[in-house]
Fold each of these.
Amino acid sequence: MSRRLGLVAMALSLALLGGGRVAAHEVRPVFLDILETGPGRYDATWRVPVTNGMAPPVTPRLPADCITGGGLPQTGGGATVSRISLSCPGGLAGRTIVLDGLSRTMIDGLVRLQFASGEMATRLVHPARPTFTAPAASGPLDVLRTYVTLGIEHILTGYDHLLFVLALVLFVKRLRPLLLTASAFTVAHSITLSLAALGVIHVPPSLMEALIALSILMLAVELARAIDDPGRAAGLSPAGLAFAFGLLHGLGFASALSKIGLPAHEIPLSLLGFNLGVEIGQVAFILALLAGGYLARRLGPPRRRLAYRACTYAIGSLAAFWTIERVLAF
């Protein structure tokens, strides 16, 4: 039995390690930010994320009659940034911008156009349709919808956050305490996400990433101890644990949001939208786990116990790997 358990845990760990190295916190779209400075004149910033020293080959293609100018791209903060000046006769309203090369990637594009009046149009552009048609203007719901989508994408592709939520579900088991624990996690990461996004607090991203991995490892250790000694779990407050570590995970969400950027005139709304998106994705993941747990009841106690052990050791193995990797990256 122990040999089978080891093989299962190893398989799960290797599968997660294969995707976990690059996927944690990856919701970094290419970003075209355009500011209207006068009739037909714009200043634009083009930002492309750099992963493992490489940037995706995506470039914005503007209307043919637009005259562009700008300096050389600069790399820093995990992205390559280009400053572009535009002169477009008649303006950009109703015109189409194409993100060339996006269809050959697995990332999204974010295009934001701020008019001289202060109104703003924000769109999330997908690889299947890499175009943005500039409207005359857009309302607050446009910004809210875009950042809700970004929040959902972030939580569902942030494997370290999902692994922590999985560990919480395994640790709590019962529905009512689970709801309380999930609520505590939500309140906590909402606090630090808001404070960090507004610039009130700042933690170096490398330190934050390492501490998040360590929080998963610590929870996995408690899970492993509770297998043979269930009374240990009774002495811990899952809600308190979730709140404490949720403060840390909120900094991770804020780090991703800072790379996306917040519209200057819609900061509260975009922050609310991103937070709502994170919660929608988190609730969807918990519901999927509960459905899986319901199906697992048919396995019988011995197989359920084996599956629980395998998941626990897989979570701990991956968290240990992340912790070491991120500490060495300091």
Amino acid sequence: MTPTLAELGEEELLKRLARFAPPGQLDDDTACLGSDARPLLVNTDVLVDGIHFSDTTTAAVDVGWRAVAANLSDLAASGAVSIDGITVALVAPGTTPWSWVEGVYDGINAALEKHGGTLLGGDCSSGSSRLLSVTALGRLGPLRLLRNAAQPGDVLISSGPHGLSRLGLALLQKEPLVQTNSLSAELQDQAISQHQRPRPRLDALNGLLACKPAELSWRAGGTDSSDGLLAAVQGLCSSSGTGAQLDRSHLPRPQEWPHGDLWDRWCLAGGEDFELVFSIPPAWADALETTLAGCRRFGQITDKTGSIVWSDDKKPVLDGGFDHFASS
């Protein structure tokens, strides 16, 4: 029978966690990074039990994976081309089984082995609920992606489809709105995988960097869609003082995606797909479409500040993204 954290005690817990980091890495209170001429990008993301994960939808190993993926997605959306590593703060009740914590760190290790970086350090504390706070550090490449860099005339282009994570959650929670007999097994598997094991799109950033037309400057707007596709567009427009027109017929829907208002809402505002959303000149968008499989242009930036409308009827696009502080 696996011991609880209270039965292990802090010293034994830290000793067990040390095996997830390079030898000696967790012996001291600080981590030392080597010098690098490239600027350092830093991001912190928090996963809270009951809000971002639950035992009914997310195994411990997937909690660890998602914690890393969320942070690395933000680094990719800012232009990071390499990952130094992460620190992890774990809060959990003393009744938490060690097997759950071990699973979380197995997931953390698996994500780092896949996408780069090492476990640099962190902290542990007892608390009334389970919480993971991850800080990730990466090195900036030649392009600093900023939300305020969007300009009128830019093409809005997504690195991949949206809505899968929300569908995956619905399937795991057995929501009555989802009729599984009308969905292919392939779409269901893809959706559950996207929810439990999202991938930070560092590959999409590398594709964007590789295909920049020589005559263009290193200027592009960018963000990720962790809070939803529309929320990503709203972030770009709000920061850059612009507006946008979205093409209803070219939303980045997954293959075999059903038709209907619910499915369009999930595509626009389902959240946690962790794709990258770029605002780039048309020539760069043309090049990216030939370089990055699965990317989709779905609109353009306009000079109408704060106005996000459909291109066909000019009506406002109304569905918003995830609000971390909205009432449940």
Amino acid sequence: MPKTSHKILAVCLGNICRSPIAHGLIEHHALRLSLNVEVDSAGTIDHHSGNHPDPRSIALMNQNNIDISNQRSRIFCREDFKRFDLILAMDKQNLLDLYSLARNEEEKKKVKLVLGDADVPDPYYGGNDGFENVFNLLDQSIPNWLELPETQH
């Protein structure tokens, strides 16, 4: 069995749309693959701290039999670099924001774009189609992060 990261953090801007979906999908796919993975999500801003995910995120995940209603938004903190093995940024701006918080190269190496070289578009100001697009992009990408050896991340 390939080695995998056992503590994964998903990060977007406000932690109410993209990263909660990623968080739920990581848990879902880890369970499907019988992996013991600690998962959390955070935002790079604290505007929504303490809030539930966006109702559209919750509804979409419920349609796919994944419950994220117990998640609460929180802001990324430097301690997250110590706590997590892998930090998945939803877009290049989140990646740059996380790099700016890193104290050294070891911490920076933990931060990756979830789609490799592309952004997960922020669906907040759009309709339900944007949330479905985010779900589909992340649903295709997340299993790769769980199944590949760490050295290939």
Amino acid sequence: MDGQDAVAGRYPAADVREQALARLREEGGRITPARRLLLDAITSPGHHTAGELAETVRASAPGVHVTTIYRNLDELERLRLVDRTYISNGPATYHMASVAHGHLACESCGAIADLPGEAFATLHDAAMSMYGFEISPARFAIPGRCARCT
């Protein structure tokens, strides 16, 4: 499975998790209880910080050390199964990799909305033609104010 094939919210979380586990196996990775718990936490709706993911995993398995969570997040990101996104000035958040999309982050209430990748087409084209630079919209958020806060 290409990490870009799993579309969070379009497929059942169990399917996305199983696809990620299959990819880990293909790459020679071990399927540990901690990895299963971490994937369960990541496939839940939303964008989660490493601390929130660690808290969720440790609620079921208190013996899992936080460094295990970080190592697994790094490995899942390396395999392009997970995207790390920087929302505002806070810590990075994680979500299952999906088709290209960006994020809108409300500076007032903290709401996060996914923005389809097509919205970045003009920016992508300009960055590529002017600088030979390919943007990764899934890794950043555009700050502003949501409709409720304006």
